[in-house]
Amino acid sequence: MKRKITISFIIICITIISIPFILVNLRIKVDPLKENEKKISLNFKRNFPLKSDLLKIYTNFKTNVLNVNPIPNKVIETENEWKFLGNNFSNALSESKGLVVFTKKELISLKKLLIHRKEWLKERNVAFYIAIAPNKHTIHSDMIKIKKYERNTKLQQLDSLCKTIDVNFINLGANFPKGNDTILYHKTDTHWNGYAGFYAYQSSMNFITQDFKKDRFSQYKLENMEAYVEDNKIGDLNNMLMNSKTEDFIHLKFKTPEKSIEQTDQLTVPIGYHNADRLYEKRFQNTSAKNNLKILVFHDSFFPYYEKYFSETFNHSVFIWNHKFDKDVIEIEQPNILYYQIVERDVDVLLNR
Question: Were 188 and a residue from 2, 44, 238, 284 both cysteine, which residue would form a disulfide, CB within 3.0 to 4.6 Å?
Fold first, then answer.
C-alpha cells in the first residue's frame, strides 16, 4: 500500500511539473516580430501558459459580473457605448484635455527642428506640410466627462508654432462638418472612418492648391464617393478589452474606377521596422492626373483612410508608413511635396531626432 502511495505521489508531481511545458507546446503561439524573422519559442515573459485564457476570465468577470472597466487606464468607456484610448498609451486623454502640454524647452527644440527641416527641404525645392489627425477625444470631447484645462493643447501649441515660423500646418479635422449626425470615428476603435478620411483629404488640398496655383488638380467631392460597410470588424479598443463584439466600419470608395496604377516597391525596408515589411512602402503612378507633381508621404495608420485620393490626384505618389524624417528617402525620391502626417497623440515623435 505504501509503495502505491509513493508511486502515485511521484506521478502526480511529474504531471504537475510537466503541465506548463505541455501547455506551451499545445496552446501558446508566438508570432514573429517581423515577417522575415524566425519565430520565438518558449517566451515565458510575454507568452506564459494560459495567458490569454486567464485574461479573458479576468476581463469577462470584471465586465459582466462586476460591471466595471477591467483596464480603465487603457480604454475609457462612455455611457453611449463609445470607447476612447486611455493614458496608458502616450497620455492620449490628458493631452487632448490640455492637462499635459509641451514645455518651453520642448517648444524651443521643436522650433529649431522644424526650421531646419523647412530650410533643408527648401534648398531642394520641396514644399513641406505637417498634417495632424486629431484624436478621437478632441473631436468628441463632450462624451468624456472631464473638463478641458484652459490652455492650448499640444496640437494647438504646434499649430501656433508652425504659424510663427511659416511652416505649413494642416489640422486634418478643420473640414469636419459641425452640428450634423455624420459619424466620423469608429465607436470601438481609435481610428476615424472613411468620411473623416475624405474631409482630411479636402483640408490637405486646400493648402496644397494654394501653393501650387500654376498646377491643375482633380477636385473630388463627396458625391463622387460611395459609402460601404465592412462587416464584423472588431475595433482595437474592443480588442484590448478582449471583447469580441463587432462593429460596422464605414469606408468610402470611388463610384468610377480608379485610374492610378500601383507600382513595384523600390526602397529597402529599414532594419528594425515596427510594422510588417509589406506595409512600409506603396507607390502609384497616374498618367491621367492633371499635373506632373510627385508627392512623398510619411504617415501612420490614419493615412490609409484617404491615400486613394492622393494617388488619384498626383502624377506620382509614394507613401511610406513611418514617422522617421528620412533624408535618404527624400534624396532618392526627389518629390515636389513632402507631406508628413501624424496623429495628435503621437506628436512627441517630432522631438525624437
Answer: 238
In a domain, 216, yes or no: yes
Asked whether residue 148 falls in the same domain as residue 276, the answer is yes
Q: In the structure, what pLDDT confidence band is assigned to residue 24 with cuts at 50, 70 and 90?
A: low
Mean pLDDT, range 135-142, rounded to an integer: 90
- Within this chain, do residues 183 and 264 fall inside the same structural domain, yes or no? yes
Domain containing 290 equals 83-351
User: How is the beta sheet containing 127-133 ordered, strand by strand?
Assistant: 168-171, 127-133, 337-343, 294-299, 316-321, 281-285, 261-262
Cell of 255: 463610384
| Tens-digit pLDDT profile for residues 36-77 | 444 444 454 555 555 555 555 555 544 554 444 555 568 888
Torsions phi, psi for 128 (to 5 deg): -115, 130
Segment 238-246 long-range contacts (CB within 8 Å, at least 24 positions apart): 238/83, 238/188, 238/189, 240/71, 240/74, 240/75, 241/59, 241/63, 241/69, 241/70, 241/71, 241/75, 241/83, 242/52, 242/55, 242/56, 242/59, 242/60, 243/59, 243/63, 243/188, 245/188
Q: Are residues 119 and 30 in the same domain?
A: no
Question: Quick one: 15 and 161 in the same domain?
Answer: no
Regarding whether 154 and 199 lie in a shared domain, the answer is yes
pTM: 0.82
The pLDDT assigned to 39 comes to 45
Q: Is residue 87 part of a domain?
A: yes
| Gap between the Cα atoms of 141 and 135, Å rounded | 9
Q: Is the same domain home to 34 and 138? A: no
The residue count for the chain: 353
